[in-house]
Here is the input.
Amino acid sequence: MENCEKQAFQQAIYDIVCLIPAGRATSYGAIAKAIGFSNFSRMVGKVMSHCPSNTNIPAHRVVNSQGVLSAKGAFDTQQQLLEAEGVVIKNDKIQKWKVVFWDPMKEL
Here is the structure.
């Protein structure tokens, strides 16, 4: 990907993440699929790992496909932010994942 394409890819990810409602979460793969790159979930994860913390992008609402918190080095913060929104987490995993899961392909 060229720099301009990388920026567009990154912005598309951030645009979707900004739409995730409080109290809900989605996966890297669901975001990748929603932006038309269904095989790029790892790239979505990489972009999210570099998400600036001084923005309004709710990066804490993005987890792996099983509902497991996956923001390396930021588990405590991610868990605290999700729990403040009413999401129940046990052993780094979102409980009632199928209820909490926000599918951008169905909900946009």
User: Anything to note?
Assistant: The first helix runs from residue 3 to 17. Strands lie at 26-27, 62-63, 89-90, 93-94.
